[in-house]
């Protein structure tokens, strides 16, 4: 370890109280972006964090948008070194239901919590104020110890992440040159347990399709027409009932053609995690997996595609009965995709599969907003190797190369708008109660998070 | 033919103009039972027809109910002869959309219509004022010619048939002794063509079941849980998709156990009818039957049971997409039943069939209002034989023993409340446009209808 890094880490350890005081000040601002009454507080949070970035030594400014402002900061003092763009968000979820909070949501406090030691309790402690401050504290320590950052750093902090990010795409588009870096660092994800670092390296993609089946030209009386008349609900259930086989596999031809199996090493790492499948299922009222047979839950969620029926409707759905044969029945499906699956190809194959099963006298219409492919980062790329080494050094164990079952819109936006890959490192835990009452962030997540970023910046410079 | 009957028929032929004038007066009263603003008109129609019954020689009265009144009349002057209860209804459907009527709906007129000769055009012409007046004119002719009716006759005219008959069951219940006869005569059905008489001898029964499948204990995010988590829409489609086989047969064990094949004679009679399957299907936008393979449309509708999905709902059904795995999905089904099928047995078998297919971690709840069995009259009973002979004599050809795909609540009510069978004879045609603009009733339906009833009364007395 370089002498510089050693002093930076010492500095972080010596200034934890001051760092916590700053975080608490930040957490006291109820920057709830989804609530117009709290928009002044969002602007106050943006101003506060811009001031803090300027204190650190960045050139930081609050930048207006049509919604809540962005905070953008730059420190480009290392010519020839890589340039990273750090992303976080300063807005928070609404705290309701308030009566379930043990103490007021915007009065942060430290508490002892069994199994976690000291935890920071407040709305936004983990999502995302605590997380983003780990990076700022790392930068502060570097600047105060060496006068510089190891690499060129830009910071982009958003104030609408919890309300759909309406201003993000236009802002990225309008400031492409300024914001495009060699790599994005995103701190809004988590770890599989409190002792093991993690990098989220795979995100599933998504494609949607609505299937609308029409049979008779109008709703019919089931007494007068029942028997001869084709029923579109029967057709829809008959076709969709064939979408999965008994092993839970999707029956669309070619659906798995581009799906790569994860490496044996990756599978072994996931299998070694202390992931409690029974507890995961038990929490949602289930006992067994309904996914592809013979695969672990983590493997299913992180590395396997799905065809999911999100909604279905047809005929009479009010109270009591109505003896109708409806003219139309429809279903909404989404496909979770994994790396190398082409959304358009999957949607086309699905449409063809439906059409081939359509009986005489029925027609089908499709509606789709299209899809976005999955993200899979190269586990052996230079920057990934740097991050893996840095995290392993801090935590004393190799980071888990996690997957994420859903998509993370910011990663997609950086990729499509700025052509930039992302490195997703976060220190949150599944039991942080984000979006729920008594949200917490482990004190060790905060302190070791800052130390982790200090190390990652050093490794990226190497 | 008896001398009496001959004179009665002559009388009917000689008084057609007067009969039509009475019908037109009746048709001018807009007795729309579903519209509270027209309830005074309903009472006016009841009073008019009660007066007319008294004119004929019945002892007739308007009888109050909680809704629109009943008209009840009696003429019991033939001790030792059978006692029949004639049923019809004096209320009509709303005429809307008014702009599609060629002339105002309550200004009855005669018109020439290609293929039908003269037709009576007005709301209620066929359903049911024109039909019920055929019986009253037959009685009038008998009374005026012979001073008596051939059998003992009671008349029950309802004013809420088009609005769910809420007062009917309580009225039957409260007046059981007065209304129970040897046989009910119902004139609210039709013929297969304008030249062939018909008796409706089979009505399908009905049983309903709602199936509610629950998987996870709450709605889930399809990214976080998609793969392992069971999806109740998938379960529902997978099970209901197996309800019919490729031949269109219902797969519930025992479903067809009690279903008798119709007789060869019956099948031959139906096959000989001039029923245009292509036109029937074409009218509802279809080209082929989706029912049990190898059976004619009439056979399917009149003599075969069905399992029909009337409604299905689950998950997100609004605009766009929502990546949800819902906790619950449900479907509403009704079964059309044929004679000898037991509704409870069918519903039980269906429940068991669902339960046997339910995967781990799912639960199912059922809701049902129960069912009513099909009705099948004995084609060789004394009264049926009498009616067949009477109709054959009037029309010069044997009556078709028709089925009806739906149920007729009044027949069910007479059976269950009064323990009385019904004889369903009507002269309506499929193209009478009942419930639609420009409703019509062929003049020959009216005149030969009255003559038919005159003959039926004579045969029942024989």
SSE topology sketch:
The structure is a homodimer of 462-residue chains.
Chain A lengths: L2 H12 L1 H12 L11 H18 L2 E5 L6 E6 L7 E7 L19 E5 L3 E5 L7 H18 L5 E7 L9 H7 L1 H4 L3 E4 L11 E6 L1 E10 L5 E2 H4 L6 H9 L23 H9 L4 H7 L13 H7 L2 E10 L8 E2 L2 E10 L5 H15 L5 E10 L2 E2 L5 H14 L4 E5 L4 H10 L3 E4 L14 E3 H19 L1
Biggest interface pair, counts: A-B, 77 and 77 residues
Rg of chain A is 25 Å
Low-confidence segments of chain A: none
In angstroms, what separates the terminal alpha carbons of chain A? Answer: 11 Å
Helical fraction of chain A equals: 25-40%
Average predicted confidence as pLDDT of chain A = 96
- Please report the number of helical segments of chain A: 15
Structural class label of chain A: alpha+beta
β content of chain A, as a range? 15-25%
Largest sheet of chain A: 9 strands, mixed
Q: Count the strands of chain A? A: 18
What best-fitting shape of chain A do the alpha-carbon axes yield?
A: elongated
State the oligomer: homodimer
Summarize the structure.
The first copy, chain A, is built from 15 helices and 18 strands.
Could you explain the architecture of this structure?
The first copy, chain A, has about 450 residues and is an alpha+beta fold. Helix content of chain A is about 35%, strand content about 20%. The first copy, chain A, is built from 15 helices and 18 strands. Chain A has helices at about 5-15, 15-25, 40-55, 130-145, 170-175, 175-180, 220-225, 230-240, 265-270, 275-285, 295-305, 345-355, 380-395, 410-420, 445-460; strands at about 60-65, 70-75, 85-90, 110-115, 115-120, 150-160, 185, 200-205, 205-215, 220, 305-315, 325, 330-335, 365-370, 375, 400-405, 420-425, 440. In chain A, strands 1, 2, 3, 6, 7, 8, 15, 16 and 17 form a nine-stranded mixed β-sheet that branches. Chain A has a four-stranded antiparallel β-sheet with strand order 11-13-9-14, with helices on one face. In chain A, helix 1 (about 5-15) crosses helix 4 and helix 2 packs across helix 4 (about 130-145). The longest helix of chain A has 19 residues, at about 445-460. The termini of chain A are close together. The relative contact order of chain A is 0.19. The mean pLDDT of chain A is about 95.
